[in-house]
Amino acid sequence: MSTIGSFEGFQAVSLKQEGDDQPSETDHLSMEEEDPGKDPMPRQISRQSSVTESTLFPNPYHQPYISRKYFATRPGAIETAMEDLKGHVAETSGETVQGFWLLTKIDHWNNEQERILLVTDKTLLICKYDFIMLSCVQLQRIPLSAVYRICLGNFTFPGMSLDKRRGEGLRIYWGSPEEQSLLSRWNPWSTEVPYATFTEHPMKYTSEKFLEICKLSGFMSKLVPAIQNAHKNSTGSGSRKKLMVLTEPILIETYTGLMSFIGNRNKLGYSLARGSIGF
Fold first, then answer.
1. Which intervals of the chain are annotated as region Disordered (predicted)?
2. What confidence tens digit (pLDDT) does each residue in 205-219 have?
3. Residue 132 — φ and ψ, nearest 5°?
4. Domain residue spans of the chain
5. Which helix (H) or strand (E) element contains residue 106?
6. How far does CA 111 lie from the centroid of its chain?
7. How far apart (Å, rounded) are the C-alpha atoms in residues 103 and 122?
8. What is the pLDDT of residues 212-247, one digit of tens each?
C-alpha cells in the first residue's frame, strides 16, 4: 500500500559507499584551502538554500480557481452585460453611458446583492443582472439631480447586533431616511428605501479588468462630477442643495441578522455555480 504524506522535515543526504572518504564535488567547491604545514582545522561547508519559484500561475492576482465559481467572471459574460445595458439605455432614454461597474449592494437588512451600476449624464442605473441567463432582471433608475448626499466610511452596527461586517462602503442618498415608513424599514424586500449602499465585489482581484470595474474609488470619481453637472443643468423650480460628500461611518441597523447570516455566507445574492445534483 502506498502512502502519500507531508514531506516537511525530510533532509537530503548523500549516499557514500563504505571506504569512500572523498568529499563530493559540491563539497570541494565550498572548502577553504589550507596550508599543508598547518594543523588541520574543522572545515565549515556552506551550502546555498534552495529557492523554488512557482510558475504555475504567473497572474499576480491570487486564487484564480475561486473566480471560476462566479458566472460574472466567465469569458464574455461582462462584455455581454455591457452591450445589453448600453443598447437598452440608448433605446429607452437616448443617454450615453459614462461608466460601468460591478459592485455588491448591501441592503438595509445587511444582505449582499450582486449589482451592475451605470452612470449616464442624468441617471444612475442599478441593475440586477442574471449572469447565468445573461439577462437583466431588474433595473432601478435614480435621477442624478435627486442625489444630495454621499457617505464613504466603515460599516457600523448597533451594539446589540449579532451579525456584523467589516470593511468600507459607500452610501448614496436621494431621499431622507427620516421620511421612510416604519413598514418599509422593517420589510426586507422593500423597494422604497431612499438610499443605496455598496461595497466592492469579491472578484475585485481576479484580473486587471475586474480591478477597474469593482473599485469604489473608480465609481466615485465618475459619480460625483456627474451629479454636480446634473445639479447645474437641473431646470426644476425648487432650489436643490449642493451635493455633500462626507466621510463617516455607515450604519446598518440590523440586530439578529439571521437572514443575512445564512444568505451572505452561502453567497445567495450572486450568480454562482453551486455544484451539480445527480447520480
1. 1-57
2. 888 999 999 999 999
3. -85, -50
4. 63-256
5. strand 99-106
6. 15
7. 20
8. 999 999 999 999 999 999 999 886 645 456 899 999
Q: Is the pLDDT of residue 92 over 80?
A: yes
Q: For 178-207, how does the pLDDT look when each residue is reduced to its tens digit (9 = 90+)?
A: 777 777 777 777 878 999 999 999 999 888
For 151, the enclosing helix (H) or strand (E) is strand 149-156
Neighbouring C-beta atoms of residue 145, cutoff 10 Å: 19
Residue type, 195: Y
Strand partners, 141: 125
Instruction: Specify the DSSP class assigned to residue 128.
Output: E
Rounded to the nearest angstrom, the gap between the alpha carbon of residue 278 and the centroid of all alpha carbons in its chain is 32
Give the helix/strand (H/E) hosting 8.
none
Report which of residues 26 and 102 the model is more confident about. 102
**Residue partners of 235: CB distance under 8 A and separation at least 6:** none
43: phi > 0 → left, psi -120 to 50 → alpha, else beta; which? beta
Q: Of 46-60, 94-108, 213-227, which range is least confident?
A: 46-60
Closest CA to 167 of 206, 110, 120, 208: 110
Nearest to 149 by CA among 168, 177, 118: 177
Query: For every residue of 205-264, which 3-state class applies, written as one string?
Result: CCCHHHHHHCCHHHHHHHHHHHHHHHHHCCCCCCCCCCCEEEECCEECCCCCCHHHHHHH
